[in-house]
Design a protein that fits this description.
The protein has 2 domains: 283 residues, Beta-galactosidase, Chain A, domain 5 (Distorted Sandwich), CATH 2.70.98.10; 259 residues, TIM Barrel, CATH 3.20.20. 20% of the residues lie in helices and 32% in strands. It is built from 16 helices and 36 strands. The strands form 7 sheets. Strands 7, 8, 9, 10, 13, 14, 15, 16, 20 and 21 form a 10-stranded antiparallel sheet that branches. The chain has a 7-stranded parallel sheet with strand order 27-26-25-24-23-22-28. It has a 6-stranded antiparallel sheet with strand order 29-30-31-36-33-34. Strand 9 and strand 10 form a beta hairpin. The N terminus is likely disordered. It is of the alpha+beta class. Bound molecules: calcium ion. Calcium ion binds next to loops.
């Protein structure tokens, strides 16, 4: 048993005179192990192996704070262990019921001044979560963390799949950073990032032929900032705090907390295949709901006039057309984007909301988050950052029966901004409102922490295809990354699934979609998002294949289980999701050749499934196919096309 092995390691270490003290924590299945000790200068460090193969080499740990430093000449003086075995239900994520079994070790270090720091490691089958905790001692009840010494040192054969952090206060109306940068795949560890500002989470690494590691963090609330990886330096990716210039320089870079207190969890998902990377639930395993809601939030599908018809569509008549489109598709929602305050006004908006409700369509309304930190003029502005105005506005929204808000343009990961995210969520829940964030950071456990949180953009989303042909050209490439990276750790509000050939109001010329219709249908399954605002337009009711419309009427947005069948980030992916007793298996091909796959899909063995397929010249078809009794499936996917099987 691991606990025994684990205790043996402690004893051996304790009695060894030549080595520093050392703790080994094994996963319950013993395949993953983490070693924690101090290096020669007494700095805490950790490493990880999977099936005996090194996946993370000795990597630095420690904190520099205004109460003292917990970095050098530290002694590992104690370890407390515990086995965790919990089952929890969670809506909105890739699976609805999770069993989390982990071995936990709380390692206590002491610095030369006698100050204590705990580092807790939770090790489960394919995940390591760790965090720092500081006690209340020496009369200190608060602390500011100047810097974390946390870093990650990968074996030399490692390549990276990363998206850079950008400079602060760049982009549209000085709103960045907003996690809207392009990925570079299979890059050498030493290749610098585009802006020299490191990388945003989540960060994927391929340890050569040995396996994969996905780095991220979870449990970030108003009590800390969001972090990222700094530039690769001396063989290590250091953890980095937000940049000084974020939010126009407002708010401090260094997070502060009351004592006793803990940092967020930093997570490593580790496997010899990509399966644990795509299927991990670690973002939710180690966090708890921060409040209970008295409201019952209903997930679902919606239309969104702005994505194809842009700002000009924010008028009464055009919005009526999108309400009618939602009604025709049986969708629950329509999302009304920026400028509704100026173009329509509150009084007529009340009337439009009533009209929608009479057609069984509910409304999400857009707000700017700002604010005093960017140049946004789209309205409504200056409401969500002020608690008095915010609560007054939310009271009005509730009185109109509005079901949710989309809040845009945050532009930073400082603790000050995390407080704003949390304040909006908390006030919105008081008024029965769901919240979608755009122009924002990634969620960090928020699906579980905040009951009314339903989505974040934090990705180069569908709007970029509308703005720029380049993003149409790389759509398939990006789509094969998200199930392994961005969307694996949290809801991704991509706002996609186009059926227009041309991405504008006329659908006649302009930015051209390069992927097939069934590719688009597949993204409705690949992109996990419990409130899906699809990029449909009223013309699609008559110009899109009926097969596609029928599919989108039926496709779920909430899932009970997610399984990776096959894939490689940047090339192709086949992913299965189950809702109730129905499986959807979605495959897409980002290469320029036909992809011939031999797949094992045991849960479809012997079943007859509906197979959707196409190529760019041939209209989508759906036909029944019978899966062999052994669950083997031969699948062919055309370039930039997709396949979906529905059982
Ligand atoms: Ca955006």
């Amino acid at each position: 048993m691991n606990l025994k092995t684990f205790l043996t390691a402690i004893c051996l270490a304790t009695f060894s005179s030549t080595f520093a003290q050392l703790v080994t924590v094994y996963s319950p299945d013993s395949l993953l192990s983490v070693v924690v000790d101090c290096n020669r200068s007494g700095q805490p460090q950790f490493s990880a192996t999977y099936k005996g193969v090194p996946m993370l080499e000795s990597s630095p740990l420690g904190l520099r704070t205004n109460n003292g430093n917990y970095v050098d000449s530290m002694k590992l003086v104690d370890v407390q262990t515990r086995q965790i075995d919990k089952t929890y239900k969670q809506s909105k994520i890739k699976t609805s019921e999770v069993q989390y079994k982990a071995n936990e070790a709380i390692c206590t270090f002491v610095n030369p001044s006698g100050q204590r720091m705990d580092i807790t490691f939770n090790v489960s089958s394919n995940d390591v979560a760790f965090r720092y905790s500081l006690p209340r001692e020496f009369d200190k009840a608060s602390v500011t963390i100047f810097q974390e010494e946390t870093g990650f040192r990968f074996p030399q054969q490692t390549t990276s799949f990363l998206t850079p952090q950008c400079d602060p206060m760049i982009g549209w109306k000085r709103t960045k950073p907003s996690y809207e940068e392009e990925y570079v795949v299979d890059a050498a560890l030493t290749s610098p990032s585009l802006y020299g500002q490191g990388y945003t989470f989540p960060c994927l690494f391929r340890i050569g032929e040995d396996g994969w590691v996905l780095l991220s963090e979870t449990g970030v609330s108003s009590r800390y900032c969001g972090s990222r990886l700094g530039e690769y330096t001396n063989g290590v990716f250091p953890l980095a705090f937000p940049m000084e210039g974020e939010n126009n320089g407002n708010g401090s870079v260094a997070p502060a907390m009351a004592l006793p207190g803990s940092t967020p969890w930093r997570t490593l998902t580790i496997g010899d295949t990509l399966q644990p990377i795509a299927e991990t639930t670690i973002a939710w395993d180690v966090v708890d709901p921060l409040y209970e809601s008295e409201h019952n939030y209903k997930m679902g599908k919606g239309t969104w006039s702005w994505i194809l018809w842009q700002d000009e569509s924010i008028n009464y008549e055009d919005l009526q057309k999108f309400i009618d489109l939602s009604a025709a598709m049986g969708f629950e929602y329509t999302l009304i984007d920026n400028w509704w305050d100026k173009n329509i006004g509150k009084e007529r908006m009340g009337q439009l909301i009533k009209e929608a409700q009479a057609k069984n369509v509910d409304v999400f309304l857009w707000y700017s988050s700002s604010g005093y930190w960017n140049d946004i003029e789209q309205g409504p502005v200056n409401m969500m950052d002020d608690p008095i105005i915010r609560k007054r506005e939310m009271k009005w929204l509730q009185s109109q029966g509005v079901k949710g808000i989309k809040v845009d343009f945050f532009g930073g990961d400082k603790q000050e901004t995390m407080r704003l995210y949390e304040a909006i969520l908390s006030d919105a829940d008081d008024h029965g409102l769901m919240v979608i964030f755009h122009g924002c950071t990634i969620p960090r456990g928020w699906e579980r922490m905040y009951p009314n949180y339903v989505g974040s953009e934090a990705v180069l989303a569908s709007e970029n295809m509308v703005f720029n042909q380049h993003h149409c050209d790389v759509e398939a490439f990006n789509a094969t990354l998200h199930p392994f990276i961005r969307n694996s750790v949290g809801i991704m509000e991509y706002g996609g699934t186009f059926l227009n050939k041309y991405l504008n109001k006329g659908n006649k010329s302009g930015k051209k979609r390069m992927t097939s219709d069934v590719f688009q249908l597949a993204t409705a399954v690949l992109y996990q998002n419990p409130v899906q605002n699809f990029a449909l337009a009223p013309n699609n009711l008559t110009d899109a294949p009926q097969v596609c419309l029928d599919y989108l009427k039926a496709v779920p947005t909430e899932w009970d289980e997610t399984r990776l069948i096959d894939g490689y980030p940047g090339k192709y992916v086949v992913l299965a999701r189950r809702a109730g007793d129905k499986w959807y298996v979605a495959g897409i091909n980002a290469t320029d050749k036909e992809l011939k796959l031999k797949l094992d899909i045991p849960f479809l063995a012997g079943k007859t499934v509906q197979m959707y397929s196409d190529d760019k010249e041939v209209l989508p078809t759906v036909k029944p196919i019978k899966i062999k009794a052994n669950g083997r499936v031969d699948m062919a996917i055309n370039p930039e096309c997709g396949v979906v099987m529905v059982d």
